[in-house]
Structures are given as C-alpha cells and as structure tokens.
Batch of 4 targets.
Target 1
Amino acid sequence: MRKLLVVLVSTLLFNHIGYAQSREAPVALGFAAKLDSAILKEERKFWVHLPYSATTPKERTPERYPVIYLLDGDSHFNAIVTITEHLSAEGRMPPTIVVGILHPNRRKDLTVGLDRDDAPDDVLGQDAGGGPEFMNYLEKELMPYIDSHYATDDYKIFIGHSLGGLSVMHSFVHQANLFNAYVSLDASLWWNKQSVVNEAPKRLRSQDYSGKSLYVAMANRLPKGMNLISVRKDKTEKTSLLRANLDFLDQLKRSAPSGLRYQSKFYPNENHGSLPLIAEYDALRFIFASYFFKISEDQLDDAKYDLVSAIETHFACVSKHLKHQFLPNRALVNQFGYRDLGAKRFRRAQQLFELNVKNYPLDANSHDSLGDLYLAIGNKAKAIESFQQALKLELIPETKEKLENLLK
C-alpha cells in the first residue's frame, strides 16, 4: 500500500483542496514510494504527487502528464505541488506529476568530483563526488519506474537548489537530452573550482539544445556596497556562489546554443533559503509562458467566433514553441463547452465537447459532457450513447442516474 504524505494545510492550499473538516482531517499531497537500486546498491525513497485531475488508474487515465524531477524533495515537495496545482488550475501550465527525490547523503548524490578544499582523508570529501552514479540511477532506474507506474508524458523538468542546482547545471551541460527544461536555484557552481562553468563553453557547442529551457535564479549574497558588477572582482568565499553563477551566465551569453530558451533573475530581496519558493513559481511561468490561452469575454460570448479553431491553433503554437506536443487543455475546453451550453450556443458547445472526445477518448467525463449537450438539444438516442460510453470507462454516479432516467 502506498504511504500517504500528510502535511499541515497552509493558506496556499485552501484555494485548491478546501478546508479540513477538523484538525484531525489531514490533507495528502502525495505518497511515499521506494525502489531497490542495483546501480546505487541501496534502497532509494522518493515522494510522488499525481495531479488532482488524475483520478483513474494509469491504464485508463485519459491524459499523460509532464513530470518534474525535484531534488531535495523533503525540502521543496510541498511548495512545488502547491505551485503546479495553482498554475494548472489557472490554465498557466498543464497538470503535472511531481517526483520528490530524497537523499540519504545529498553531498554524495549531488556533486561530481571533490571540492577544492576537500582533503583526501576528509570523510566528507570521500563521500562527495557520487553524482555520475546518482544520475545513472535517475536515468536508468527511477525514470523508467515512474514511466511504468504512472501516466507520464515524456516532457521532463529538472529542478534543484544549492547543491541540487549544481546537479541540475551539470546535467544541463553534460546531458542536454535528458530533460526538456532545467531550473537552477542558487546553484553551488563554485564546487570543484567551478568545473561546470569551465566545461560549459565546449559542451554548449557540441549538444543540441533545440526546444530546451533553462531558468537560473540567484539570491542576494552581495556584501554591503557591492553590486552585480563590482562583486565580480571580489575574491572572498562568501561571494563565490554568486560569482560562479554570474560567470556561467557570461559563458552562456557568449556560447548560447541555437534553439535554447533561457532566463536568469537576481532576487535582491531573497536569501539562499527564501529564494526557492518564489523562484520555482517564476521558473514554471517562464517555461510555460506560451501555454495560457488568452481570450476576451466578447469573443467567448460571440456565437460566430470559431473558438475550437482558436484553441487548436493556440496549442499547436504551444507545441511548436516547446518542441513537444501539448493537446488542448481538457478542463479548459470542458469549461468553455458548459459556458456555451448554459448560454444555449448549442452548435459551438457540441464542437467543444467533441474536441475533448477526439483528444481524450478514454475520458469518461468528456463523453458525459457530450451526453449533456445531446440531452439539452433533445437528442435522446445520442445522449444515451454518450452516457453509456462514459460508464464503460468509469462509474460516475451522476452519469448512471442520468442514463437510468433516460431508459425509463
């Protein structure tokens, strides 16, 4: 049995999952899972969040979802889950699976090579440098496990903070094809004499970054009296992380691969610990900047406006922009369909519901919605057909009741 992850409800969650009925009623954001790794020769634990819209078993799930692989899951899982659910509910990104990776030894997992200050007989130094093995586990064991157990799409996002950011940037430089988007939060790029920074120019020229996205966030580590220009001349350890990130961005500007979308942001009011929450939100807004479907109230209320074509054109552009196919958002299309149904714009409502049935033939709710349309226009036979199809896919009590009333 999957172990539920129970958290205290924060005000951020109230908008999406409601108030608990009592202090004893927990809210589960996901569940814990584990995997025996032959590569790492140990049991590895991780947390999984499935989108709230993923309510059916994998084999019957009508949608396939992008996946976020999140390093230091125990620190950032709650925030990322809340952000993804909020943004997807607002139509700003697709519903997304989140995999929060746990680290029994994060320094070992998230570094490549020894740091400049690690002596060979230093216990911590000996534990460092296990990044290649960890990434091998991630690619060859964890990802296939997630793909085989959950309804995944093959659009993948890699997010890491501090040493996790170092691991993200190392993957971006050395394994460009492993993920579609990379999010680096105050990465420890000073590690091992800035090896990732130094290796970047050659690697950026030798790999294909077409359709890839990179977001680099930096917290304020400026000593009093310094700015982002003067700090580059500083040699003290306390500015080494910021300087290393600035050096990487300089390299990226000089060697930016064709087709790469990237954005960097310095957060003057955030420190190393407070940065992730706001930067994770900004990063996902950047990655899915083209996803939101903009439409005016006048267009929605105009029965002659070709809404279906507009939606299909928009998501075709999103797919082209991200070099990955994204179907029209199922919930959005359904919402527009019921809006038209309520306003008795029956012809367009039918087109919208039929669009969902075409794109998501395994979705019981899409067939149920089309049945509601047929019921409203008096096409009893078609309504029965749609409700029966919905019930073949999923037992929805409301659908069953509607069908029974029609068959009386």
Target 2
Amino acid sequence: MNAPSNKAVDPITVQILRNRIGSLMDEMHHHFFRSGYSTIVRESRDFSCVILDPKGRLLVAPPMFFHSTAYGYFVQRIFELVGDDGLYDGDVFISNHPYDGSMPHVPDMGVIVPIFQNEELIGFAGSIAHKADVGGTMPGSTWGQATELFQEGIVYPPTRLYRAGVYDKGIERLIATNSRQPELTLGDLRGQVAACFIGRDRLRQICEEYSTVELAASLDAMIEAAGAEFRAALSQLPNGTQEAESSLDSDGIDRNKPVRMHVRMTVKDGQVEFDFTESDPQGARASQYSTSSGRGMLLSGFNRYD
C-alpha cells in the first residue's frame, strides 16, 4: 500500500471514510481519557490520538492541533531506522525525544502502531501524551532553568515497546526506574497503547468492509482534497509582506537580556514564506521548539485564520 493507488474512488465514499476515521479517533480519545491514570490525561487532556496513512500522513487533525506535525516526522524516522520492510504486525514504537523522535518536549511520549491487513501496511495509529515524570533534575520533568536536554529527563529515541506482538518488559523497567511517578507514567503509557490498538482494530474493520484497494484510494483522495482546499485558501491571501515582533523578558539564565522574537511573512501568488532569521539565536534555557512543533504552531495560526 506504499504505492499510490490509481483506482477511481467515489467522492461520497471518501467523505464517509473521512467521517468514520474522525469518529474512530474520537473513540480513541474517549477511551484514553477514561483510562488515564494521571490528572494530566483525566483533567488537562494534554494528549492526542490519530490515524495516519501508510506514509505517515495525517488524515484528520486531532483537537490538540499542534501535535499534528509531529506524527509524520516520527513515522519517517521509524522508516529510516528499520526500513520499509522492518515493520511487523504487532509492533509498537515509543519515543519522547524532541529531535530523534520529533516530540514537542521531553515529557511528551509518542506511540506509533503500524496497522497491517493481510500482511499489507494500511496505516498507523498514533498518540502523544504528556507524562507525569520521566526523570531529570526536577519532579515533573519540566524545569525552567534547564540548560541541556538531559536535565529534563531520560530521552528515548524511537524504540520498540512491542516487537511483533511481544512486550519488552526491559523497556518497561527502564521507564519505571527513571520516573518519580512510575505508576502514573506507565499507566498513562499503557492507556495510549490500548487507544492505538482500538484505532488499529477499527481501521482493519473498515478495510474488511471496503477492501485494501478502495481504502488506499480513499486515503489518497483525502490527502489530495485537503491539499487542494488549503491551496485554495492560501490563494485568497493578498500578496504582500507582514512583520511581527515580540520578546521574552529573558531566557531565564541571563535575566538582564530580553529575547527578541521576529517573523516576516511574505505572501506571493498563494505561496507563503515565514522568515525568522531576525529573531535572537537559540537561548541557553529550555525554551526552544523542535522543527515539527514550530511547523505545528504555524499551522495552528492558519487553522484560526478567518
């Protein structure tokens, strides 16, 4: 299913499947929320659950919109590490690494589950959720005075928690040993995995109803339609350049030096460029965003544009 499908697809079927995928994502969110161990999940709802196509492309955006861009980077990194043929039915990958796994920050743990039907990859289920504690200098793994990644907690590159359906208890012990709140951390992680299994099972059911070929064509059509709609919206923006500037009081380390943030947005014939080069260089404190999170924030801005 990695190759594009040439099958003509009924637009009504595409819309039905788009709504069904959105509904099953709601189901994933609901069950994870109900099974959460920590108040981060049960009250703050600092998490997201998604369904992706076989290339890691997002089909329906989650409510936690700025998570949207992280999933594609995570899946592409998994492909880089294991290859196109290195995924197995029953695999579960985890990561909280902001760069190697493209997570928003160290306390956010991502889960990716490849979905197979008749030994063919048909998509991925994914989830990102903030964890109660993954180690580091301060309880909660969030410290404003951190000057390096390792002070925020132990970082896991994309790693198999399950290999072909077999649970790796060694990874569980590693996570538990490096957390001040192992029960909350592992409880929420297990809830994420279970939510992804729900997404996996529901997509398989859809595949049984519509066949892998029709599902593949419909997923491609969803992506193409979303791209066409977004390009049409961008084409309505007037050509020109706009600039905005703000500042942080400091980076938290050198408290006498404000941190300048500057962006220049240039619109030309439906193409939009964001230029941040006049912003101050990276600061010493833990106030940076990864590439995926930065792009997620930009898309969030467009999502609210009227």
Target 3
Amino acid sequence: MTTLAVTVGHDNSLRDIAKAAGAHASVGVGHVGRVSALVFSRPALAACAVLGGAPATRETELLRVENTVSTVDGLVLSGGSVFGLAAADGAVRFLAEQGRGFVTPAGAVPIIPAASVYDLRAPFSVSAKPSSSDGSPPSLPIDVDFRHMGYVATADAWEQIHGRVMREAEDGVGGAGDVGGVGAGSSTRAADCRSGIGTASFRVRWGKADHHIAALVVANPFGGYFAPGGFPWAHALLYPEDNRDWRKVRKTPPAQLFGGEACAAPPLMTNTVLAAVVTDAPLPVSDLQRLALCAGDGIARAVRPSHTPYDGDIVFAVSCPVEQGTASTAPAAEDTIDLGIWCGVAADVVTRAMIRAIIE
C-alpha cells in the first residue's frame, strides 16, 4: 500500500529547492523598504493569486493561464510600496545581461513578476520641481535606490544557483534561508508583534515520487498572530522545528514598534503579506493556479484577520522541477502526487513560514 510521508525539509527553507535560489539586499538608511529576489535555474512555470484588497504588483496579469507567456525567470519581493516595484527593473537588467528571458526578435526579455508591501513609516511628499537644473525627474520621496537593490539581490541569487560562493558585498546581502528582519522584511510588522521574512519547507514522498515544496513570505499583515492565551493562532499546526518560547516574543502595540515620532507606526490600510511557494514537482499552470489559491489559506491560519481591504496579499506558485532522466525513470501514474495533497501541503508550509517570520 502506498503511503504519504510529509517531513520537514533538510534546510527547512527555500534552499531545499535545488533549481531555485533567493537573496536579500539591504541598502539604504533606517527602517525603509528593502528587496528580496528569487531566481530560477531555467524558465519556470508560475501562477499567482491576489487575495488582498490593496495589492502593489507588476507582471501578475501575465501569469493568467490564458495568456502567452507562462514561464518566469525570477520573482522580486520588496518593501517601499509602489516605489519598491522599481526593484524589478534592476532584476530585469541583470538577467538581460545574462541572456535570460522570453525570446523575441530583438532579444531575450526577462520575465520578473514583482510585488511590494507598504512599509513607509514617515510622511513624505514629492516636489513638483525637477531635482536639478538639467531637467531630471524629482527624486523619490525615500532615500532608497530600489533598482540597485534589485540588481544586487538578483546577482547574488544568480551566483548561488550556479554554484558559486555567495559574496559578502558592502551592500549587505543575505541568503534564502535567512529569516526575520532581512530583505523585504526589514521594516515589516503585524498588528501585535514585529515580523519580517519567513521561510519553511517540506519533503513530500508518495511511492516513487519524492519532491520538495518551500515557501518564502514577507509578513506585514493587518491582522495579528497571537490568541488571547499568548500562543500563536496556528500553534497546533506547527512542527517542533517551528516552536520557541513564545513568552519572549515582544507583543507590542503597533505605535510602540519602532519608537520615536519619526518612526511612528503607520495608520491602518498600510499592510500586505507576500508569499512565494516553490516546488520541484512538475505541475502545469492550471494546477499552480489552484495551488496559489489554496496556499493563501496558510496566511489565514497564521494571522487574523487576513486578506482584508487593507492588505495587498498575494501568493506566487512556481514549479521548477529537477531535470528528468529517461522516461523510464519518471514516476508511474500511481506514484504521481494528487493535486489535493499538494494544496494541503502548500497551505501548511505557508503557515509555518509565516510563524518563522515572527521576530523575538
């Protein structure tokens, strides 16, 4: 009798997906939007589900199953609200330099969907006047070069995926296994605690089928993590690798999270959870669309409420399988893992990633 085995991945992070790599770039001053980038070793099938009422996104419409381009070269998750979407420009530039992208008569065009959280903490304005006498456009209201961060994070993820040693740049680069206040999670928070980047993974085995699924989240939810008793709402769903002394988590009212008038907590309507679910199982786009929708349940299990009008919640689902050998080595039909199983596991791995994003 074939049995299902779901265990925590060896690294319990995106690193367990052999054909994907991620990196976080932190450039700038203070608590302001940073960038996390994912790169895939070859074009990967992808889909997405926009679940919140206030998304900030780029290239998501392209991922609809009826549209022409079904593969992506990477993903960019950022802070900085709509300004942070410029990080995808840097990612596109780097991958274009490597010759990656959708082939057109004029050359390869990298496909990089992107999404951003709102983590701007201080009031800002944009001057209507040019910033210099040469007529150049006014500068951004925040002192961050998102394009540069997107380039740096993508370059580092590219080096990881091609087996090079991750460089320690002065820009501040971290890897896909990092959690907490790194990359796009540098200045995020939940309603009742500090949050950041979270990642988790599972190994899923069914007969001869042996695959991994991992999630990377940027947790900036409108909702809260903790039930009245002091434990997370999702406590019963966690594995031993996820648990900790929850009494040490600083359950702080939002207005006190950053301290000082300049870093006062933002009002409502400035939230979002971004999630990327990546598997090495060969799933078609239609299945990935369902996977993305179901993975969003993992957010709802971790924070309450979720997917509100004030959240821009979005889930990307990506399939980047390990190269198959001959047809005789592929799993038989009876060893193929059912989509329903993948949907349940995807929700669970997102919940665990959300919990691992909590900062003590």
Target 4
Amino acid sequence: MGSSGRYSRRTGSGRNGRRGRKTNIAWEKARAFFLENRLAAAGLLLLLILTAALVIRAFVTGGGHRVNVDASQPDIDVQLLDINPYSRPGIESNGITGIVIHYTANPGSTAQDNRDYFNGLQYSQATSASSNFVVGLDGEIIQCVPTWEVAYASNARNYDTVSIEVCHPDESGEFTEETYRSLVQLTAWLCVKFNLTEADVIRHYDVTGKNCPKYFVENEDEWEAFKENVEYAISRTPQEEGE
C-alpha cells in the first residue's frame, strides 16, 4: 500500500505538471497572438491617422481644398492707373471671353507695390505692362484698369480677357490662404459678370507657354482644384428671380 501510494502521488504530480506545461504553452501562444495582432491593429490605426493628417494638411494649405466663398462681388479697392501708353492705353476691349490668371514673379511684393509699379511705367517707360486687378498677400484686391479696357498683361488675349495678377510670398509661387480665397471669389464674380464658366478661366501659360502663374503651371492638380473652387463658388451664387 505504501509503495502504491507513492506511485499514485508521483503519477498525479506528473499529470498535473504536463497539464501545467501545456497550459503555459497555450497561454504563451495566446499572448503572442494577442500582442502580434495588437501591434498590427496599432500599425493600421497609425496609418489611418497619418493619412487623415495628410488629407487635413492638404485641405488647410490649399492643395485641392474646398473654399467656402460664393461669386458675390468681393471688396475691391479701385485705384485706376493714369491713362498712358505704357500701362493703361484707354482702349476699349472687344468683349470679354475669358479670365487670365498671372503671378507677379516678385516674391513678397504687395498689391499696392505692383499697382504703383504699373502706374510708374508712364514715367520710367521701361516696358508696357499692367493688369485689370491685383490680389495681395492678405487677400486685398486692387483694381488698376476698368474691365472694359485693355490691360497689357496677356499678350494676344489682351483685347478679350480680364487679367488678374496675384502676389505670392516666396519663390515657389504658391499663394497664401487669404490670397487664394480672394482669387477664387474675384474670378467667380467676374465669370458671373461676363456670363462665363470655369472653363473660360486660363493661365498666362495657356496663352504664351510662359511659366505663369508658376505654382499652377508646375502643379497641374492645383490648377484643376482652383477651377473646381471657382465652379463651386459660381454654383453657390443665388440666381435672380426669373432666371
């Protein structure tokens, strides 16, 4: 009996040990599986967060984001140039069939700087240049030439388009958020004024092949996004009764 009792205790202990080892192995496998999947889930979550951040950044910085403006007339500071042969010849246009977007190619210059430069050409006679409008770094808009008059900006399209010069802070040619918003609203307003659509909005590049406006030439997707914003602004403009 004593021998049998000892054997039983040893046998029971061995079975319990084996069960314990199996339980530990199963636990370790479960723990490893949990950790592996937790890391995978965390990695997926991190990827989603980074993707969302990139999308938000693109919307905030103007890269294809929707601008919440309509085609109502923006605030415009009318400072018409003196009539002169170099920047405001006083010639009536042939009727407006398009809007041409330019950039100043003078980083950091303001709308006032560019307006005054155009007006000063009557004295310096350095070149012939002007624009109907200039949009500044803070979104301010100055009108230099009436929309029914020719401005010296768009070469062969001077006589049937309205030109908009746009200021930019650095060499990239990218516009500030304030500038971008004003440009969208001004362009949309001009489209409504002259019964045009976003399809009639072009770049200086589309007339002459010049790298102007630089950011919209070198980033075609940004140009398409800009025109989509103009289209959206036009669509948000209430129609007059009877139309």
